[in-house]
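note to self: dont lose this again. the chain is below, predicted strucutre after it. 99 aa total, dont forget to put it in the shared folder this time
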Amino acid sequence: MQNDHNKNYLNLMPSLIACKCPRCRVGMVYKHGPYSLTGRTMLPGCSHCGLVYEKEPGYFYAAMYVGYAFIVAELVSMAVAISVFTGSHVIIHFCDIAI
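---
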């Protein structure tokens, strides 16, 4: 069972690298290819199986929450670093601003 699972992933890798359709692995996703210098224009759908390419629901919500988490982590780490290296109480001011 484990060998079949790994074999499926090995068969999937060439189509991922070539940016083929995720359903049939035959049709192209981009008009000029994934690595062209003229720009990546995404096709509206697969020419082979008819799958419509679109962003999944909640894509932007997930990106927004992940981006917010990174910004908060960066601000907290900078406040702690400034407080440790300078001896000031930046964390108190940071908490006032964040609330």
